[in-house]
Amino acid sequence: MRRYVDRADAGRRLAGWLLGYRGADPRVAPLLPAGRAPVVLGLPRGGVPVAYEVAKALAAPLDVLVVRKLGVPSQPELAFGAIGEGGVRVLNDSVLRHVVVSDAEIAEVEAGQRTELRRRVEAYRGDRAPIPLTGRVVVIVDDGFATGSTARAACLVARAHGAATVVLAAPIGAPGTIDELRDYADDVVCPGAPAHFSAVGQGYDNFQQTSDEEVGTLLRCAEHGFTQ
């Protein structure tokens, strides 16, 4: 695959694969209620510069989807659930059937992640209200799919918020992960799927970390007509 210059370049190129969600594609148009554009949600932090370009191309509103995975105390990388804004919590029953996690431990893990979730929401969005997702087509964008754990959690949280159709999109991803994500999303768009995938950064010339400040700036620019 041809490498991306940076996340903005990746977003512009990814947008070309998503133009059907402007309603021009007859297979997609019926999914857009009353001709409304989809809602584009960036996964902070690195997914937001990519999502900004996608939202701009689709003439769609942009927001962040802040999710926090709930990890098993003895195996933090193994998620037994996820939380989102508005008190949303989704639990993975298949994981909980195979690990021993008490109600007290679940509450403790959730409380810690709620604190971090609130901090991030305030840093990214300030006092602006989130865009309602009920009945909407939602395009969730990240800068890449490695293990897919955050993308899976994002799908569950978006559906818990009432999203009618969930699309996952990223410029690059591990082929196996892309296949697994199709069980969670209605559509998965990922044009870069190198056979020898090692890390998301391999697809970028510039893969510097995205700051909280940059996320906030992009959201404000999108709110004011994508003017920077």
- Strand order within the widest beta sheet: 2-1-6-7-8
Uncertain parts: none
Number of alpha- plus pi-helical segments: 7
Distance between the termini: 30 Å
Class by alpha and beta content: alpha/beta
Average of pLDDT: 91
Beta-strand percent range: 15-25%
In percent, how helical is the residue content?
Answer: 25-40%
Shape estimate: globular
- Main β-sheet, in a few words? 5 strands, parallel
Domain count, please report it.
2
Q: How many strands appear in the DSSP assignment?
A: 8
The CATH topology of the largest domain is: Rossmann fold
Secondary-structure element string: HEHEEEEHHEHEHEH
CATH architecture annotation of the largest domain: 3-Layer(aba) Sandwich
What is this entry, summarized?
This protein is of the alpha/beta class and 228 residues long. The protein contains 7 helices and 8 strands.
Can you describe what's shown?
- Residues 37-191 form the Phosphoribosyltransferase domain.
- Pfam families: Pribosyltran.
- This is Phosphoribosyltransferase domain-containing protein.
- InterPro entries: PRTase-like, PRTase_dom.
- The protein has 2 domains: 7-23 and 35-65 and 127-221, 3-Layer(aba) Sandwich (Rossmann fold), CATH 3.40.50; 68-125, Ybab, Chain: A (2-Layer Sandwich).
- The chain is built from 7 helices and 8 strands; from the N terminus they run αβαββββααβαβαβα.
- The protein has helices at residues 7-16, 47-58, 93-96, 103-125, 149-160, 175-181, 212-223, and strands spanning 39-42, 62-64, 68-72, 75-83, 89-91, 137-141, 165-169, 187-189.
- The strands form 2 sheets. It has a 5-stranded parallel beta sheet, sandwiched between helices.
- Helix 1 (7-16) packs parallel to helix 2, helix 2 (47-58) runs parallel beside helix 7 (212-223) and helix 4 packs across helix 7 (212-223).
- The two termini are 30 Å apart.
- The mean pLDDT is 91.
